[in-house]
Every structure is written in structure tokens, then in C-alpha cells.
Amino acid sequence: MLLKEGRHITHMDLDTFFVSVEHLRNPKLIGKPVLIGGMSDRGVVASCSYEARKFGIHSGMPMRAALRLCSHAVIVKSDYEAYSKYSRLVTDIIGDKVPMFEKASIDEFYLDLTGMDKFFGCMKFSEELKKSVAKESGLTISYGLASNKLISKVATNEVKPNGQIEIPFGYEKSYLAPLSIMKMPGIGKETGYKLLKMGVETVKRLSEIPMPMLFNLLGKNGIELHKKANGLDESPVIPFREQKSISTEQTFETDTIDIQFINRELVRMTESIAFELRSQNRLTGCIAVKLRYSDFQTEQKQQSIDYTASDTVLIQKVKELFAKLYTKRQLIRLVGVRFSDLIQGTHQISIFDDTQEAIKLHQAIDSVKKQFGENLLMSAAGYKGPTKSKTACK
């Protein structure tokens, strides 16, 4: 497969996003080792400043372990509402200036600038956008410009913080060659360990391994890694405006005003699509609840929320919306729940107040659902009991 000239993709990533927001809120934190996360030592580090990273601290690390490495670190209780607010602000800034972009997570974006090289210049445009983000939001952002998403992301990571770089077409493979394999997207700890045991330490060495051998070692992932090691990536930039919603509806066999029954259904439905959300590695920033009365009159309420995929948060918000929506006390024939404003991301960025035990529990539950079906496990609040179901899916 040959590299195809023509695409110009810029990857932009906000520098230590959560910490940077806290710097704006409290400038006294600048220059100090800062840990964002739960306040208890049983919590987990959601993000940390560059000063903290010098001590070997990283996101996902138990707070207790982080404090052993840096006892004088400042722990800041997270404010996900503020982080979501700034994420939307930067999204709006980019959306006003870029015709097509993908919001890959709460703090990173892919911009398809193909064609702009003939007019304004892709590097110049990216630089001006970087300045606009800093001026309008107060946040620093780094970027890499290349012919595909893979190279642009790797390049961005190499120049952070507050950096910028362009990898010209034709230099993709040579740029990756000297880098550690652990800097390659798609190589986690387990895969990295296997490769390192074989003496494969650099991307160059990885690119020299025949594809059949990598396939035998890593399966389909081996084929993808062979392509990536050679600088190949044809994955498209998915326009942010085309992100779809996830929803479900339930029509009751008998119209009802049984609030306890309806709340059980809402819990069950919310858990179902929240699991789907996490399975797609997505977060939602907007919830809508719909109800249809027995006379077929339909009403709906929606609310913007902090980006999340947590059952606990989503169920609470759905119940609150339903309580505000259901004011007529008439018989109900249908209820629905919809998640929209979807971005890529995992529960990892909303674990601020979770303990390690709670995180492992949620991960274990999702693992069981993926193996044996999502209906095998559910919360007691959504359980209807062994009797015949009162509802029928629409």
C-alpha cells in the first residue's frame, strides 16, 4: 500500500486540559505539582500537571501511590462542570473557523484542512487557530499537521506542551522510525510487553517485521500495527456535526400512572443505552426524556450535562428530567430516553470521585455484560422481578 498525497490533517490537543482549567481558576497552582481527582487517598488520579509527572505520576494511578511519589503535591477536587464548559468553548471556537472537524475526546480534535494548502496554507491556518484558542479560552493547545490522523496525533504528543509541528508528505515512515513502540497508538502494556520481549523497541524495527508474523503474534491488531509502523492510515475525519444520538423507547401494554413502575423502566432503559455508550467508548453531553400520554400527546425535555457515561449520573439526571416533565398526571403510554452531543471518551475521565474498587466493579460488570449479554446484570432499581413483563418494546 502506498501513501496517498492530498490530505492535510491537523490534530489538536489541549495541554493537560483539566490542570490548565484549574490554573485559570486559581493561578497560584501554576508551577506546582497538581493532582486532579478524588480527595481521598483511595481515589484515582484523573490528571496531573507536568510538574507532577516529573515524579513518575500519571493519570489512572491510585492517589495514595501518587502521594508516595510526591508528598507535597496539591490535590484539587475535580469540577467536571467547568471542564465540560471549557471543552464546549474550544469546540465552538474551532467550529466557527473549521468547516470539517472531529471531536475525538473532551480535549482533542482532528481538523481536515485538505484543499486549504492551495489558498491560506494549512500550517499558517493551524497556527492562527492555535492563537485564537489561547486568546479566547486562555488555554494552550498543541498541534501536529500531517497527511493522516495517525502521524498528526503522534506528532502532537511529541511537541507537547504548547508546541506545533508539520510532518511533510513522504516523511511519515522516517518520522516514526526512531520512536519507541510505546508511543504508537494501539500498543498497550500487554502488546508492548510482547514486542519488547522480542527485542522490538522502535517503530522502525516493528515496521521491518513481516505482516504474516505480526498476524500470528497479535491477530488482526498485528496487521493494523504493521500499517501504522509504515506510516499508513486512511481513517477519515468524522465530522462532529454528524455524531449520532443513542436512544431507546418503550411502549407499555397498558397505559399507566404507576410512577414506581415507570421509574424502573427508565432505570432499565438508561442502563441499557449507557452500556451501549461505553461499548462505543463514548460520552454524552445531553440527555432527553420523552413521554407520550394516552391521548397521544407527546412532550420532551432535554438538558445539557457534564460529559459522562456513568450509570449513576445518567440515571439520576433521567429521573430528574422525568419529574419535571410529568406534570399532567395523565395515563402514560410511552417513555423514551436519548443521549446526544456524543464525543469519544471513556469513564476514565469521569472517575474523579470514584474509588479504585468502584471503578473495578463497573469495569467487571461491563465485562460480564459483553460476554454474556447486557440483560444478565442490572441494578435492583431497574429489576422488574420474575413476573411477566408489563411492557413491550416498540
Automatic annotation (TrEMBL):
Domain called UmuC: residue spans: 9-188
Known EC number: 2.7.7.7
Reaction catalysis annotation: DNA(n) + a 2'-deoxyribonucleoside 5'-triphosphate = DNA(n+1) + diphosphate
PROSITE patterns attached to this UniProt entry: UMUC (PS50173)
Record: residues binding Mg(2+): D13, D107
Entry keyword set: Cytoplasm, DNA damage, DNA repair, DNA replication, DNA-binding, DNA-directed DNA polymerase, Magnesium, Metal-binding, Mutator protein, Nucleotidyltransferase, Transferase
Site label Substrate discrimination, positions: F18
Main location: cytoplasm
Cofactor note: Binds 2 magnesium ions per subunit.
Cofactor(s) for this UniProt protein: Mg(2+)
Residue positions of the active site: E108
Subcellular location: Cytoplasm
One Pfam family cited in the UniProt record for this chain: IMS_C
Family according to the record: Belongs to the DNA polymerase type-Y family.
Subunit structure, as described in the record: Monomer.
Protein task: Poorly processive, error-prone DNA polymerase involved in untargeted mutagenesis. Copies undamaged DNA at stalled replication forks, which arise in vivo from mismatched or misaligned primer ends. These misaligned primers can be extended by PolIV. Exhibits no 3'-5' exonuclease (proofreading) activity. May be involved in translesional synthesis, in conjunction with the beta clamp from PolIII.
UniProt protein name: DNA polymerase IV
Species whose genome carries this gene: Parasediminibacterium paludis
Record lineage: Bacteria, Pseudomonadati, Bacteroidota, Chitinophagia, Chitinophagales
Gene: dinB
